[in-house]
Design brief:
There is one protein chain. With 370 residues, this protein is α/β, with parallel strands linked by helices. The chain has two domains: 159 residues, Rossmann fold; 197 residues, Dehydroquinate synthase-like - alpha domain (Dehydroquinate synthase-like, alpha domain, Up-down Bundle). It is built from 15 helices and eight strands. The radius of gyration is 20 Å and the shape is globular. It binds nicotinamide-adenine-dinucleotide and fe (ii) ion. Nicotinamide-adenine-dinucleotide binds next to helix 2, helix 4, strand 6, helix 6 and helix 10.
Length: 370
């Protein structure tokens, strides 16, 4: 049994200045970032790197069109890619480290040779995706009306760098959506049939850190997150390590058509179906691993195990209010289409479900969350 896949070397710096002193930004570097993230921390420091500002290519999460336009604007050769940003930037940066990644549709369909060519350094500025340690890049494919992940070891970073200082300006809304995403990575990977003792060690620790942090924030208010940012950044990284080995499952699969159709931030789209999926697991196989897992979560939440998903929803609603799907504009007629999309296109994720979820089960969950 392979216990854990963890390729990047991992670093933690208290400040951007220390990271810069160790790394340097040279003329053979390509930095992919946002002005409002990069400038407050790096503008006074020496740099000869070329910079690609992601916000010049559109708002929201990454699409094939956005990444292709960005790639077309990179002139000259570069040897190292440094991605500094949220999951959007990190996932795009991974593709830029490959040799000839275009057209992206063919790359994701594995019709192109996938070869890593550049050194890759990833610096997350949200506390969500854990993408800095995973081998996955996720894009929305406009013509296919959904998001897809490409999972291949060539997408691993050489270095994953955590700098809590960078999260100080992260607005509460994105703190919330990204950390809920991390929590769901930890939940899904812990119940995945591919979970191992090592992946669970990281997954369960992430759950404990995130839920305890949420309890403090709900009690004391949004500003209480500030001293906890380092904890949340580390927890999202742990959750990334956990799902990098054990995978995510139905929550992610079901959120992709929804997120792509209504441009809902990834963590929020996950949360819209999260408790529905876990309640379905609980109903379908209450005496399997979920029994002990629910007791573990209930202990953190100080509630009876039977009430764990209702209590969880109460806590999470204090961080990010869950909206029924209809409030995003989803129509009932779309639910069978989303279901078909999940069953036909998200096999990579659906293989990791705790219990079998067939078409009817997926449709029932969408309907319950509608
Ligand atoms: N590859 C993976 O393993 C993996 C895992 C989970 C999610 N994802 C993908 O990641 C994306 C979501 O990433 P995300 O949740 O990190 O959000 P994001 O990268 O889309 O960022 C959300 C918003 O916050 C802003 N922002 C980010 N950091 C900031 C900071 N420090 N200060 C101020 N503003 C900041 C961004 O500019 C953006 O407007 C989705 O596309 C999702 O599919 C990838
Ligand atoms: Fe995610």
């Amino acid at each position: 049994m392979k216990l854990l896949t963890l390729k990047p070397e991992m670093h933690l710096y208290d400040t951007c200045k220390e990271f810069h002193a160790d790394t340097g930004f040279t003329e053979s570097d390509l930095i992919i970032t946002n002005r409002y993230i990069f400038e407050p921390y790096f503008s006074g420091l020496p740099s000869q790197a070329r910079i690609l500002w992601q916000e010049d290519y559109g708002a929201g999460e990454p699409s094939d069109e956005m990444a292709e336009k960005m790639y077309a604007d990179v002139k000259g050769r570069f040897k190292r890619v440094i991605g500094i940003g949220g999951g959007t930037i990190v996932d795009i940066s991974k593709l830029f480290a490959l040799k000839n990644p275009l057209p992206l549709g063919d790359l994701f369909d594995r019709k192109l040779e996938i070869a890593k060519e550049k050194e890759l350094i990833l610096v997350p500025t949200t506390c969500g995706t854990g993408s800095e340690v995973t081998n996955i890049s996720i894009l929305e494919f406009k013509s296919r009306h959904t998001k897809f992940g490409l999972a291949t070891d060539e997408l691993f970073a050489d270095k994953a760098v955590l700098i809590p200082e960078l999260l100080e300006g992260l607005p509460f809304k994105f703190f919330a959506t990204s950390s809920v995403d991390a929590l769901i990575h930890a939940f899904e990977s812990t119940l995945s049939p591919k979970a191992t003792p090592c992946s669970e060690l990281f997954g369960r620790k992430a759950i404990e850190m995130i839920l305890n942090g949420y309890r403090e924030i709900v009690k004391k208010g949004e500003e209480a997150r500030k001293p906890l940012l380092k904890n949340f950044l580390i927890a999202s990284n742990y959750a990334g390590i956990a799902f990098g080995t054990a995978g995510c499952a139905a929550v992610h699969a079901m959120s992709y058509p929804l997120g792509a159709a209504y441009h809902i931030p990834h963590g929020e789209a996950n949360y819209a179906v999260f408790t529905g999926v876990f309640k379905a697991y609980q109903r379908k196989n209450p005496t399997g691993k979920i029994k002990e897992f629910d007791a573990f979560v209930a202990k953190i939440l100080e509630c009876p195990p039977e009430a764990v998903y209702d209590e969880l929803e109460k806590l999470l609603n204090g961080i990010l209010l869950r909206k029924p799907l209809r409030e995003y504009g989803v129509t009932r007629q779309e639910l069978p289409e989303f279901t078909k999309n999940v069953m036909e296109r998200q096999g990579r994720l659906m293989a990791n479900n705790y219990t079998l979820l067939d078409d009817q089960a997926i449709l029932d969950i969408y309907t319950a969350m509608y």
